[in-house]
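Typical record was shown:
=====
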Amino acid sequence: MRVDAHQHFWRLERGDYGWLDQSPAALRRSFGPGDLADTLQAHAIDATVLVQAAPSVEETHYLLGIADATPFVAGVVGWIDFEQPEQRGQLERLAAHPRCVGIRPMVQDVADDTWVLSARVRWALDALQEMDLCFDALGLPRHAPHFLALAQRHPALRIVLDHGLKPAIRDGAFDAWARDMQLLADNTSAWCKLSGLPAEAGQDASPQRLRPYVEHLLQCFGPSRILWGSDWPVLSASMSYATWLQTCESLLSGCSDEDRALIFGNNAARFYRLMPRMEN
């Protein structure tokens, strides 16, 4: 099976997507299943993981409603307020939904880089581990040491690093990011998403520009811990879905058929435990 492990939908009328105000004009409209279905079919993508794009529980319920009505959405990564322990009941209700596979706080937007290690949010991380929900780590290169400490403190927590931790490709930054990704790969059980890199590359998201970053992620995490994702529709501000998929297929052409099958779908099914949900 082929799985897009990271995509979004949003409806502007909901009013909880503040980050869109500073986004390219192409993204400042609503996107729903009908905007993506033909593209998935054209590229033989069997299923997707729908990821939160707003810091609200209400949006998570909205996404779960989409999943209930959309056969290709195999899982939803939602949101809860990690600073509100009284939301444990809300988390339990989300975990009971057959399509809820994980939670993603928007760590990149928190002023305190050490927030994920703070005592006030530990209850949420403990609860994710207890309920066997995944933790999507949305951060930047500066968060790498803190995600490393988190993963070592919660060894049973299933963690995936979104967008390769967003290396500053447009600035040519590589060495420090590469070192930290190697440390994360070697010293934790975290997985990594091959997604979001075009947005970090700016004007030049050519295969040549992206190659060292993709090859380093592959060298660090190996084909058994990498999940391919589109980050659509954010992707559409940089390139088409087809171009990103073709770019990744080209950059990973040296992998075996088995390894490419892992990266382009089987890993997502395994990490997010999609198969039982897709069979329901």
